[in-house]
């Protein structure tokens, strides 16, 4: 039976009432020989500009987990390098998301979970396996305090990011030491031990290191302001060559003398905290003066 005769037979049966009526009365809408429609997609396509930042975040997470592995194998210098790589990737994923306009709520949550592993769990375990275990429970207590402080710092950062009424100048400061900086600065005892300084590793020094690790943890959990580099604007033209030379020199020194450069950067960062506090308070004084001037201004 060809298609025309089939249609005629179907129409005759339709006239005798042998076939059920069409829903809605639109008989022409049904064609038994029409090609089947492709099934609807169940999943919406995700653009690459959203996937790419999350891939960088997952790569940073892999670096943190690999650092834990090398710490278990007592390869502490390699473990430190992987934490540094994770910190670099953590700085890149947010910038890539903003540049590609691929920032999402999912990416923000994934970034926080990765940061907790990379800059809370990994440094704590590296420090414990490296030397804090000399005091067993006390060393483990210091490691726990460090990891918990990193978790609290990240949770507070997520909450404060949703506050709409923060002054614009707050973007130039972090509330509490950022988790990546806390991880890099917290590993300072290892840098001292693995550098040319060859710091002693006796029980007294380990006790000092425990106190230092707890102090860094308190800086992360505190509300002490720290400088933020996220809002660095354009560099004046006359300083471009100087900045480029300085950046290249730092990278070369970091590749040649990694532990020594990390000691210098850690101490420099700690030294910047008083200046950040002073600058933050100056902004608060300016805001208070402006509010007082507005309150004293006569109504027009």
UniProtKB/TrEMBL annotation:
GO molecular function (one): CDP-diacylglycerol-serine O-phosphatidyltransferase activity
Entry's EC annotation: 2.7.8.8
Record has NAD as a keyword: no
Transmembrane segment boundaries: 50-68, 138-159, 171-192, 204-224, 236-255
Gene3D superfamilies xrefs: 1.20.120.1760
The organism's place on the tree of life at top rank: Bacteria
Catalytic activity: a CDP-1,2-diacyl-sn-glycerol + L-serine = a 1,2-diacyl-sn-glycero-3-phospho-L-serine + CMP + H(+)
Membrane topology: Multi-pass membrane protein
Biased composition (Basic and acidic residues): 1-17
InterPro entries: CDP-alcohol_PTase-I, CDP-diaglyc--ser_O-PTrfase, CDP-OH_P_trans, CDP-OH_PTrfase_TM_dom, CDP_ALCOHOL_P_TRANSF_CS
Gene Ontology process terms (BP): phospholipid biosynthetic process
Enzyme class of the recorded protein, top EC level: transferase
Disordered: annotated segments: 1-31
Principal location class: membrane
Keyword Hydrolase on entry: no
Compartments where found: Endomembrane system
Gene Ontology cellular component annotations, sorted alphabetically: endomembrane system; membrane
Keywords of the record: Lipid biosynthesis, Lipid metabolism, Membrane, Phospholipid biosynthesis, Phospholipid metabolism, Transferase, Transmembrane, Transmembrane helix
PANTHER family: CDP-DIACYLGLYCEROL--GLYCEROL-3-PHOSPHATE 3-PHOSPHATIDYLTRANSFERASE-RELATED, CDP-DIACYLGLYCEROL--SERINE O-PHOSPHATIDYLTRANSFERASE
Family the entry assigns: Belongs to the CDP-alcohol phosphatidyltransferase class-I family.
Protein name: CDP-diacylglycerol--serine O-phosphatidyltransferase
Species of provenance: Methylocella silvestris
